[in-house]
Amino acid sequence: MDLGLTGKTIAVGGATSGLGKAIAERLILEGATVLGIARSHQTLEEMQTVHGKAFIPVMADLSDSRAVETAAITMNDHQITGCVLNSGGPPPGRVQELSLDDWDAAYHSTLRWKLQLTHALLPSMRERGGGKFIYLESVSIKQPIDNLVLSNVFRAGVAGFVKTLSREEGPNGITANIVAPGYHDTDRISTVLDKAAQLQNIDRGTIEKEFLAEVPLGALGQPKDFAGMVAFLLSPFARYITGQTITIDGGMVRYITG
């Protein structure tokens, strides 16, 4: 199926690892040009070597407001048609383990930069008659995850922002959606599993079995499968989908609407 992304230019955060890399590679496969954002010059160069002109490297730490401002200028200069807002999540932890400094850092790394980047991109998108925002968050928006209180709180804040954004900017041809992964085979899930094993004082293999027991499909998700949904939402076929939080979790979330 041709998703109609040939000739589109799309920005992807965290484009050199995990889910972000899978999304960038799927979009390139679909004929899009990707502005790949990451902190590592080396990994950006490696992606550009593989994909050539289809991958434009943008080195930026998205938790740094000055870097976000500079990255937004680059995106506007390239007249992007869509933006995938993605970066690493906040560290695991329980309420009593975390300091106010931890909360401040999580606000900047999980919520604030997304507000800043969205604000910076909106005027240009309005002038061009539309655009698409995709925010990569977590199933914790619908079903909080133990030992991840920072993610539970700030990703829910992103959900409130995105729903409001979708209503305000719909008349301008701009859509905004959240794609919320469950347990996928990435470095992030390894961190979560290690923390859970530490707290429960049991081995890593046992805790992984416990996690997978929550997933009806019985396995970790693969990044390339997740990337397919994001590519669809960035395509013309998704023009009537906005303000949604779509979970991709193997059936883990028990919330009745998914």
TrEMBL record:
InterPro entries in alphabetical order: NAD(P)-bd_dom_sf, SDR, SDR_fam
Gene3D superfamilies named in the record: NAD(P)-binding Rossmann-like Domain
SUPFAM superfamilies from the UniProt entry: NAD(P)-binding Rossmann-fold domains
Family: Belongs to the short-chain dehydrogenases/reductases (SDR) family.
Name of the protein: SDR family oxidoreductase
